[in-house]
Amino acid sequence: QAKQNGRNTYAFYTQALTNNARLQMSLQADLHRAIKLHQLQVFYQPQIDMHSGRVIALEALVRWQHPQRGLIPPAEFLPVAQHVGLLIPIDEYVLQQACLQMRQWLDAGYPLTCVAVNMSGSTLERGDVVSNVKKALAGANLPAAHLELELTESEIMQQDDRCIDTLDALRGMGVRLSIDDFGTGYSSLLRLKRLPVDTLKIDRGFINDLPGSANDSAISRAIIALGQSLQMSIVAEGIETQAQHDLLREMKCDVGQGYLYSKPQDVTTITAYLLDHFSAELK
Ligand code: C2E
Ligand code: MG
Ligand code: MG
Ligand code: MG
């Protein structure tokens, strides 16, 4: 009997593994086509000035509109993309699209400071990243100051010191730089001090349990103080409730991003949101 069960369990797990492997393989094959067929879509989520309540920037977040599987989130296909060497072209595509879109919003008169684009460690390591960013900006006729590049803390800390030269070059062009998911990596404060960054984004993990968690309040307050003393602007991600907003605002956090204000939306929806948001001042 036990042997029988054991065999069934084994059969169950092999089946599950096979299914997962099959899914990965089919996603890999589809992903090659996805870029060509324009199935990748860039969604945008607003960033709000916590003091005035105005939208000041937007973050570009990629999704995959799969013909059979529907909308696939980045956490599910970016690892696959990385595995098959497609992460760099995807970053490049999102960067191009985001620059073109930002140009349109500025042309429409929306008073936005910048569009934030996520950049993977692999893209940062590439020798041609600086010229690619220049190309994307030139292609959209977008001044560099309207672009912010987000690098996660853990990826930035994995890089050797050569990446600081790349970051210096990008910053030298006028591009803004931001450290994403701050607090989840293992930053040395010495290294942080040397990084030419403009913005720290407090990871959603510290925001989630506010205002109830005394520990997370203390950590958020400390990150805000650290950023301020390094002359960086602070963005809190994942704000979902008014109580979180109120507390972070009281802590003098500059900018908020999260479902409380808006989920990431497709271009049409977010453009309608911006039109409505800015309608009073555009008249
Ligand atoms: P991220 O850059 O930290 O982006 C924030 C994530 O938090 C987004 O998930 C966003 O939808 C989600 N989020 C925002 N507000 C809330 C909230 O109030 N509550 C909750 N629960 N979640 C919230 P998303 O869009 O699924 O993206 C996940 C990650 O995928 C991003 O994390 C980023 O690291 C990566 N990613 C997305 N687009 C790109 C891209 O074009 N290139 C690269 N390299 N990575 C990307
Ligand atoms: Mg980000
Ligand atoms: Mg983040
Ligand atoms: Mg994140």
Automatic annotation (TrEMBL):
Residues 24-278 form the EAL domain. It comes from the Bacteria. It is found in: Cell inner membrane. This is cyclic-guanylate-specific phosphodiesterase. It comes from Halopseudomonas laoshanensis.
